Amino acid sequence: MTRTRESSLADRRVLVLGNDDRAAALVRTLAADGVDATRTAAAPEALATLDAVQIDLFVVVDGGEWRPGDVFGAAARRGHQPQGVFVGSKARELPPGVEQAPAGAEAAASVIRQRLLAATATEAEPAVDHDPLAAYGETVSHELRNHLSAARLAVDSLDGPTVEQVHNALDRLEGLADEAAAIAAGEVDDPELVSLETAAEDAASRVRSPQSSIQVDADDRVAGDPELVTLLLENLIRNSVEHGSSEGADAGVTVRVTDTDAGFAVVDDGPGFGGGDPFAWGYSTDGGQGAGLGIVQRIADAHGWEIVVSSDDGARVELRTD
C-alpha cells in the first residue's frame, strides 16, 4: 500500500525546543500540515521527553539559553539518535546528521517536512530497487539540499559579505545541475585529464571538518569529468568525516587522498565499514538518506572505474581507473 504525503507526516513525531513565539509559530505551521509536533521551552525538559517518547525529528530553535551543538550532543550521549534540524539565521557548527534550516516558520517547516518525507521513503515497504530515474532524483535531492540551505541562510541577512555567499552557492548549484545531467546519462562523453590534487583540494574545501584532518597526497592525473571527479571525492571525504569516528564528530578523523598503482584511494583511520553494501542506494548506519556513497558508485560507473573497499585499520575506498 502506498502511503499519502499527509499520512506519512502524521506517522512522525517532532519535538521542538524553543522558548519564544518563533517556536510556537513553527509548531502551528507543522500542525496545519498534519505533523505531530510538540514544543518544550527548556533543554532539560526536551531531553526528558526524548527519554519518554519515541521522537523521529528533534528540532532546536535558536534564541534560548543553550548551544545547539550541546543539546544535540547531550541527546546522543543519552542514546537518542533522531534526525535533527537547527532553526536559525546564523550559521552554527552542528553535529553530523543535523541540518540547519532558515529562520521563519514556513521556511523551517519546509525543511522539516522534507526530512520527514525522506525518512518515510527509506522505510517504505515493500522495498524495491531504484530505477535509474529514481536514483537520479535522489542524487539531485541529496546534493542540492546542502547548497540550497546555505543560500537560504545567506538571503535571510543580506549584506556585503553574504551577497557573495549567495552568488557562490548559486554558482555551485549551476555546477550541480551539470553534474546531475552527466550522472543521469551514465557515461562521460568528453573525458579530460583531471589533476587529483586539484580535485581533492576543491572537494576538501566543500566539507566542514573542524575536528578532522584532510590530507591530499595525490599528484597523478586521471581521465574523467573534472566536476564529477571532484564530486566523487567530496562525497567520500564527507562520508569519512561524518561517519569515520566511532566516538562521534567531536573526536574527529584523519582522511587521506592518495595515489595507488591502479588509480587513487580515500582512506581514513576510523572504524571502517559495517555489514551490508555501503554503496547501495539508501544504505545508512545512522538514519541518514544513504545517498552519498550511491553517488560515488554512479560516478565510478559513468567513468568505467572499479570500486574496491576494505576496512583494515579504517575505511579504504580505492578507485581503480586503469
UniProtKB/TrEMBL annotation:
EC number: 2.7.13.3
SUPFAM superfamilies on file: ATPase domain of HSP90 chaperone/DNA topoisomerase II/histidine kinase
Keyword annotations from UniProtKB, A to Z: ATP-binding, Kinase, Nucleotide-binding, Transferase
Keyword RNA-binding included in the entry's annotation: no
Gene Ontology MF terms: ATP binding; protein histidine kinase activity
Catalytic activity: ATP + protein L-histidine = ADP + protein N-phospho-L-histidine
Domain of life from the UniProt record: Archaea
Domain Histidine kinase: 139-322
EC class (word): transferase
A Pfam family it matches: HATPase_c
Cited PANTHER family: SENSOR PROTEIN CREC, SENSOR PROTEIN RSTB
Protein name: histidine kinase
Species for this entry: Halolamina pelagica
